[in-house]
Design goal:
The protein is mainly alpha-helical. The chain folds into two domains: 95 residues, Rna Polymerase Sigma Factor, Chain: A; 81 residues, Winged helix-like DNA-binding domain superfamily/Winged helix DNA-binding domain (Arc Repressor Mutant, subunit A, Orthogonal Bundle), CATH 1.10.10. The protein is 60% helix and 3% strand. It has a two-stranded antiparallel ribbon. A hairpin with a 2-residue loop joins strand 1 and strand 2. Helix 2 packs across helix 3. The radius of gyration is 24 Å and the shape is globular. The N terminus is likely disordered.
């Protein structure tokens, strides 16, 4: 096809057909459409994923690492990088939330295993000091006991415990998050619960609140 150049621009004859326009993938509210957009490489999809689940990932990281851990902000980035790199392995688009929760927990657990070899982080010298709100001493003691018991779980049991009893996932959702079978998820949840009960016998009310699960 003949074209004419003028002032550095290619001028298409009036009778020439317009080139096809690449279809725009709409990003709507449901996760299935978002997963489709991510797999198709829609440039808007990563930001949509972060906007939708950034707060969830931050909460799970805080519960796994601790709310004042200085490394959790870096891990937030790592979680989404892993999710974007592995999105094609997600078989059920409607399980995006639970799949991402699993990536978050296991990214944090992997980091904790590495950090255990080099010691805990030091707070920055210019860290802002904030006055903690007044809380009943009994509540403070109970929460400290809860997290102390969680810290004594091995990394796999802690991950399963957080998914099931802190984030409130069902056994089916735990299986999806961990990429394991339902029967394996059940066994690992039962093991984590049994171990946790051994570590926290002095707060039965706290136990029942955190170990409440579907029958």
């Amino acid at each position: 096809m003949q074209t004419h150049r003028r002032s550095g621009f290619s001028v298409r004859p009036a009778h020439a057909p317009e080139p096809p326009i690449a279809p725009v993938i709409p990003i709507v509210q449901d996760d299935a459409s978002l997963v489709f957009a991510l797999k198709q490489g829609d440039p808007r999809a990563p930001a949509t994923l972060f906007d939708r689940y950034g707060a969830l990932v931050q909460r799970v990281l805080a519960r796994t690492l601790g709310y004042h851990d200085p490394d959790r902000h870096d891990l937030l980035h790592d979680v989404f990088v892993r999710a974007l790199e592995g999105i094609r392995t997600l078989k059920n688009p409607n399980s995006l939330r639970h799949w991402l929760t699993g990536i978050t927990v296991f990214t944090a657990q992997e980091f904790l295993r590495r950090r255990k070899r080099i010691g805990p982080p030091q707070p920055p010298e210019n860290a802002e000091h904030r006055e903690a709100p007044a809380v009943a001493p009994e509540a403070v003691a109970a929460v400290r006991s809860l997290y102390a018991a969680m810290d004594r779980l091995d990394h796999d049991d802690r991950a399963i415990f957080i998914l099931k009893f802190v984030e409130g996932l069902t056994l089916d959702e735990v299986a999806v998050a961990c990429s394991i079978s339902f029967s394996t998820a059940r066994r690992r949840v039962e093991r984590a619960e049994e171990r946790f009960r051994e570590l926290l016998p002095e707060h039965p009310a706290l136990l029942e609140r955190h170990l409440e699960k579907e029958r």
